[in-house]
Amino acid sequence: MENRKELPIGVFDSGVGGLTVAREIMRQMPNEKIVYFGDTARVPYGSKSQSTILRYSRQIVRFLLEQNVKAIAVACNTASAYALPEIEKDCPVPTIGVILPGARTAASITRNGKIGVIGTSATIGSGIYADYLKEIMPSAQVLGRACPLFCPLVEEGLWEDPVTEEIARRYLADLLDQEIDTLILGCTHYPLIRRTIGKVVGPDVQLVNPAYETAQELGQLLRDMDLQAEEAPALGAAESQYRFFVSDMAEKFRQFANSIIKYGILSAKTVNIEEY
Fold first, then answer.
1. Which one of the listed residues 91, 147, 151, 187 is annotated catalytic?
2. Quick check: is 187 catalytic?
3. Residue 263 pLDDT > 80, yes or no?
4. Catalytic residue among 76, 91, 147, 151
5. Which residue, 268, 260, 220, is CA-closest to 242?
6. Distances (CA, A) of 217 to 26, 138, 159, 227, 230
7. DSSP state of 18
8. pLDDT tens, residue by residue, 59-88
9. Does 91 qualify as catalytic in the annotation?
10. Domains along the sequence of the chain with CATH
11. 116 bridge partner residues
12. Whole-structure pTM value
């Protein structure tokens, strides 16, 4: 009989941003295998309708289940906001999104109750961070700001560029004027420009990286369900331990992935996700 503990974790995102979540899982749970899917043909999700995001997410979940995953991390804030509740209803394996872990952490560390959230237009428009935060901390003041230019700047590798810093100053000025003391990086691209954002907001604003918090909660979930891998895959098994799939532009994805993940991603395979 198959040992479910040895099965991989499925991770998906609209593109490359979810690699920050995969990277945290690799760091925090080195024994685990990962199957990652990046929907690079249909990125970005942040400007799509809820019904479209839900359709895309269901296709990807079907693909990941075909890869025999034991759990799924929805490593995309937009998909977590618009698709996760529906996916959870009929998915046969445990699923986790990136929004609730980040909201929990922000509520636990804020000192003045003024919490900023930055993300895509869809994530901010959904109001989901505010909804979660109000449930956890009814007195919280939640201030959202869409930052659509951050994703292309990240993907161009301009992580600590003066252009990115200037855009960040413009985006974040209103939140800082309202004296937030905590800022949720509500898009999985944003941890890659954490240093630039930190420089702009200053030392008095605590940054919450939901990629880190999601990996923490996922680890706890696997322990609670007795699904945690007990030993590392055999030496030299990096290619089979971490498998990457995309819907387009595999070589560009591989190059970007290698710039942020140290394990040496040898290949990314293209999948026709519309078939699922």
1. 187
2. yes
3. no
4. 76
5. 268
6. 14, 23, 27, 13, 18
7. T
8. 999 999 999 999 999 999 999 999 999 999
9. no
10. 4-97+212-275 (3.40.50.1860), 99-210 (3.40.50.1860)
11. 143, 183
12. 0.92
